[in-house]
Amino acid sequence: MMQRHLQGSGMTSQRTRDRLIARLVEEGIADERVLAVMRTTPRHIFVDEALASRAYEDTALPIGYNQTISQPYIVARMTELLLENVETLDKVLEIGTGCGYQTAILAQLVNEVYSVERILPLQKKAKVHTELLTLKNIRYSYSDGGWGWEEYAPFDGILVAAAPSEIPEALLQQLAIGGVMIIPVGKQGGDQTLQRITRTESGFYVEEFDSVIFVPFLAGKE
Predict the structure, then answer these.
(1) I want to staple 100 with a disulfide (CB 3.0 to 4.6 A). Which of 69, 124, 126, 179 is the partner?
(2) Would the pTM of this model clear 0.90, i.e. be above it?
(3) Which residues make Cβ contacts (< 8 Å) with residue 62, sequence separation at least 6?
(4) 70 tagged catalytic
(5) What CATH number should be reported for the domain holding residue 139?
(6) Which domain holds residue 100?
């Protein structure tokens, strides 16, 4: 029964997933590793059953608590930028676990994922979702994302799923030399830009990519 749920049927079938992957390729996603993982990861288990038929649309969907599961293109794009020019990454910090979909994608492409979420019910749901996929290389923290996860720093990669107006200094300092951070930056309701920040021996190198819309990066825990 569970295996059938993971495989999906109708609007959650593998054929529907394949159509999504074809759309991502048309939109410019080229990393075969990312495409392969997204092709086999059942996005429909990460949303409420009432929304499952829309899981393979290229759109963000609500997951409760004023949060969303990111648009598949954005998940693919951020992951592709994170992994560009490397075979794999050892330790990746994710800020904003949400429902766990991006977490699951990362966990199949890097050695270890350290995922921080400030909304406890969402974190609990994410754990259930990723356990269904038997992913064993994820650690979770219920914490303020702006603090990062200093205990396990430095990180080879950091991926942030909410938009601050300014990048938290703690996250910059927890990035390893040569490591990369993928983060949307900008004010809520204003212009937000997806940025890649590479830490060098002498400082930080910033590249700007797509215009994006993310939920705000908020302090504290709920």
Answers:
(1) 126
(2) yes
(3) 51, 68
(4) yes
(5) 3.40.50.150
(6) 60-212
